[in-house]
Amino acid sequence: MALESASLLKAGLVLLMAAQVLPSVSACNRGGYEKTINDLCLEKFKVDLRGLDQDLWCSWPDTTEIYEGLTNCTFQEAMKMDCFWPNQIVDRFFMQIHQTYFHDCPLTGRLLHDPPISILAPFIAVPVLVTLLMTALVVWRSKRTKGVL
Fold first, then answer.
1. Which residue stretches of the chain have pLDDT < 50?
2. Angle at 52 between CA 47 and CA 56, to 5 degrees
Protein backbone atom coordinates (compact mmCIF):
# COMPACT_ATOMS: atom_id res chain seq x y z
CA MET A 1 0.00 0.00 0.00
CA ALA A 2 2.79 2.42 0.89
CA LEU A 3 4.59 1.54 -2.36
CA GLU A 4 1.48 2.27 -4.42
CA SER A 5 0.86 5.62 -2.73
CA ALA A 6 4.52 6.60 -3.21
CA SER A 7 4.34 5.79 -6.92
CA LEU A 8 1.05 7.70 -7.22
CA LEU A 9 2.67 10.64 -5.46
CA LYS A 10 5.64 10.51 -7.86
CA ALA A 11 3.31 10.33 -10.85
CA GLY A 12 1.32 13.28 -9.53
CA LEU A 13 4.49 15.32 -9.04
CA VAL A 14 5.69 14.49 -12.55
CA LEU A 15 2.34 15.60 -14.01
CA LEU A 16 2.41 18.77 -11.91
CA MET A 17 5.93 19.60 -13.10
CA ALA A 18 4.97 18.87 -16.71
CA ALA A 19 1.97 21.18 -16.44
CA GLN A 20 4.20 23.98 -15.16
CA VAL A 21 7.01 23.49 -17.69
CA LEU A 22 5.18 22.59 -20.88
CA PRO A 23 3.14 25.25 -22.64
CA SER A 24 -0.57 24.93 -22.28
CA VAL A 25 -2.37 23.29 -25.15
CA SER A 26 -5.69 24.73 -26.20
CA ALA A 27 -7.63 25.26 -29.38
CA CYS A 28 -7.12 29.01 -29.07
CA ASN A 29 -5.72 30.67 -32.14
CA ARG A 30 -3.90 33.48 -30.36
CA GLY A 31 -3.10 35.43 -33.52
CA GLY A 32 -6.68 35.14 -34.73
CA TYR A 33 -8.01 36.17 -31.33
CA GLU A 34 -5.78 39.24 -31.23
CA LYS A 35 -6.82 40.22 -34.77
CA THR A 36 -10.51 39.71 -33.91
CA ILE A 37 -10.49 41.86 -30.79
CA ASN A 38 -8.56 44.57 -32.64
CA ASP A 39 -10.83 44.49 -35.70
CA LEU A 40 -14.16 43.98 -33.96
CA CYS A 41 -13.97 45.11 -30.33
CA LEU A 42 -11.54 47.98 -30.74
CA GLU A 43 -13.36 49.41 -33.73
CA LYS A 44 -16.71 49.37 -31.89
CA PHE A 45 -15.01 50.97 -28.88
CA LYS A 46 -13.57 53.74 -31.09
CA VAL A 47 -16.98 54.43 -32.66
CA ASP A 48 -18.68 54.52 -29.24
CA LEU A 49 -15.98 56.76 -27.79
CA ARG A 50 -16.22 59.19 -30.71
CA GLY A 51 -19.88 59.66 -29.78
CA LEU A 52 -18.80 60.93 -26.36
CA ASP A 53 -17.30 64.37 -25.84
CA GLN A 54 -13.54 63.99 -25.29
CA ASP A 55 -13.78 66.02 -22.07
CA LEU A 56 -15.91 63.21 -20.62
CA TRP A 57 -13.49 60.37 -21.40
CA CYS A 58 -12.13 60.53 -17.85
CA SER A 59 -15.59 60.49 -16.30
CA TRP A 60 -16.22 56.92 -15.18
CA PRO A 61 -20.04 57.28 -15.07
CA ASP A 62 -19.98 58.43 -18.69
CA THR A 63 -17.56 55.81 -20.02
CA THR A 64 -18.51 52.78 -17.94
CA GLU A 65 -21.05 51.46 -20.45
CA ILE A 66 -18.61 51.78 -23.34
CA TYR A 67 -15.81 50.18 -21.31
CA GLU A 68 -18.06 47.32 -20.20
CA GLY A 69 -19.01 46.76 -23.83
CA LEU A 70 -15.33 46.47 -24.73
CA THR A 71 -14.68 44.06 -21.87
CA ASN A 72 -17.68 41.92 -22.79
CA CYS A 73 -16.63 41.87 -26.44
CA THR A 74 -13.15 40.55 -25.59
CA PHE A 75 -14.73 37.94 -23.30
CA GLN A 76 -17.30 36.79 -25.87
CA GLU A 77 -14.69 36.51 -28.60
CA ALA A 78 -12.44 34.52 -26.26
CA MET A 79 -15.28 32.10 -25.56
CA LYS A 80 -16.08 31.73 -29.29
CA MET A 81 -12.44 30.97 -30.08
CA ASP A 82 -11.96 28.67 -27.07
CA CYS A 83 -9.38 30.97 -25.48
CA PHE A 84 -8.86 31.54 -21.80
CA TRP A 85 -10.02 34.91 -20.52
CA PRO A 86 -8.38 37.03 -19.23
CA ASN A 87 -5.09 36.28 -20.91
CA GLN A 88 -1.88 38.06 -21.91
CA ILE A 89 -3.39 39.27 -25.17
CA VAL A 90 -6.29 40.92 -23.31
CA ASP A 91 -3.89 42.42 -20.75
CA ARG A 92 -1.76 44.00 -23.49
CA PHE A 93 -4.90 45.08 -25.35
CA PHE A 94 -6.31 46.95 -22.33
CA MET A 95 -2.91 48.44 -21.48
CA GLN A 96 -2.81 49.86 -25.02
CA ILE A 97 -6.38 51.17 -24.66
CA HIS A 98 -5.47 52.97 -21.43
CA GLN A 99 -2.24 54.40 -22.86
CA THR A 100 -4.07 55.66 -25.93
CA TYR A 101 -7.37 56.95 -24.56
CA PHE A 102 -7.07 57.38 -20.80
CA HIS A 103 -3.45 58.47 -20.26
CA ASP A 104 -4.45 61.95 -19.02
CA CYS A 105 -7.07 60.70 -16.56
CA PRO A 106 -6.44 60.83 -12.80
CA LEU A 107 -6.02 57.51 -11.01
CA THR A 108 -9.40 57.85 -9.32
CA GLY A 109 -11.14 57.90 -12.69
CA ARG A 110 -13.02 61.07 -11.80
CA LEU A 111 -12.98 64.44 -13.43
CA LEU A 112 -11.29 67.03 -11.26
CA HIS A 113 -13.49 69.95 -10.32
CA ASP A 114 -14.01 72.39 -7.47
CA PRO A 115 -16.19 71.26 -4.58
CA PRO A 116 -19.61 72.87 -4.19
CA ILE A 117 -19.72 76.31 -2.58
CA SER A 118 -21.52 74.90 0.48
CA ILE A 119 -18.40 72.87 1.27
CA LEU A 120 -15.81 75.36 0.04
CA ALA A 121 -17.21 78.43 1.88
CA PRO A 122 -16.62 77.20 5.46
CA PHE A 123 -13.03 76.24 4.62
CA ILE A 124 -12.41 79.80 3.44
CA ALA A 125 -14.56 81.75 5.91
CA VAL A 126 -13.44 80.11 9.17
CA PRO A 127 -9.68 80.81 8.78
CA VAL A 128 -10.40 84.38 7.65
CA LEU A 129 -12.68 85.03 10.64
CA VAL A 130 -10.22 83.42 13.09
CA THR A 131 -7.40 85.60 11.67
CA LEU A 132 -9.50 88.75 12.04
CA LEU A 133 -10.57 87.79 15.57
CA MET A 134 -7.00 87.06 16.67
CA THR A 135 -5.79 90.35 15.16
CA ALA A 136 -8.53 92.27 17.00
CA LEU A 137 -7.68 90.45 20.24
CA VAL A 138 -3.97 91.31 19.94
CA VAL A 139 -4.73 94.97 19.19
CA TRP A 140 -7.21 95.18 22.08
CA ARG A 141 -4.76 93.55 24.54
CA SER A 142 -1.89 95.79 23.41
CA LYS A 143 -3.94 98.91 24.23
CA ARG A 144 -4.60 97.60 27.78
CA THR A 145 -1.08 97.46 29.20
CA LYS A 146 -2.18 97.97 32.84
CA GLY A 147 -2.59 94.83 34.84
CA VAL A 148 -1.44 92.41 32.21
CA LEU A 149 0.68 90.45 34.65
1. 16, 18-23
2. 135
Residue 10: its pLDDT value, please?
64
Q: How far is CA 58 from CA 44, 46, 113, 133, in A?
A: 19, 15, 12, 43
**Is 53 strand, coil or helix?**
coil
- Are residues 109 and 58 in contact, defined by beta-carbon separation less than 8 angstroms? yes
**Is 0.70 topped by the overall pTM?**
no
| Identity of the residue numbered 44 | K
35 residue type, one letter: K
The burial class, CB within 10 Å (0-12 / 13-18 / 19+), for 46 is middle
Q: What is the DSSP letter of 115?
A: P
